[in-house]
Amino acid sequence: MMEMFLMIEPWHWLVLGFLLLIVEMFVPTFASLWFGAAAIIVAALAWLLPISLFVQVVIWLVLSAVFLVAWFKFIKPLSVDRTKAGLGGGVIVGETGMIVLSPQPERAGIVRFSVPIVGAAEWMCRTTGEEIAVGERVVVTDIVGNELIVRSMQSPTLSQKNRQV
């Protein structure tokens, strides 16, 4: 009778593997993904080779541990979001965006970038005195604290002013 309960077929491992993969969709930690992948591999091995339940469990545990170590040591460091990964504020200078809230002398405006820069798509901004309307394209010229200093892309640059003189 006890033999019947310990009988695990390859499809049991396959179902376990797919259930763990489905769990990963709802809990995005990349932990159950590796346990599920290991279970699917054990299902393939159990289908191809006559291996005991003890060996199947050991293979599953070893593969799960290897996959987890490989994830945390080798794969995850490659997938670090480079928009937030220790980059200095200087990477923002020269980027172009669009004004969504016009900066005024008494309050900062908001500039939106098409792609998040250093972890945010919208930044507070100020100008060096020029008036910029909502919807106008701007370029970042400097950073002061947490605010960007921007200028209109329509305004002539310093080099263009020098050529006109």
UniProtKB/TrEMBL annotation:
Keyword annotations from UniProtKB, A to Z: Membrane, Transmembrane, Transmembrane helix
Pfam families attached to this UniProt entry: NfeD (PF01957)
Subcellular location: Membrane
Record-level GO cellular component terms: plasma membrane
Record-annotated membrane-spanning stretches: 12-45, 51-72
Gene3D superfamilies: Nucleic acid-binding proteins (2.40.50.140)
Membrane topology value: Multi-pass membrane protein
Transmembrane helix is among the record's keywords: yes
Keyword flag Membrane: yes
Major location category of this protein: membrane
Segments forming domain NfeD-like C-terminal: 92-151
Protein name, entry field: NfeD-like C-terminal domain-containing protein
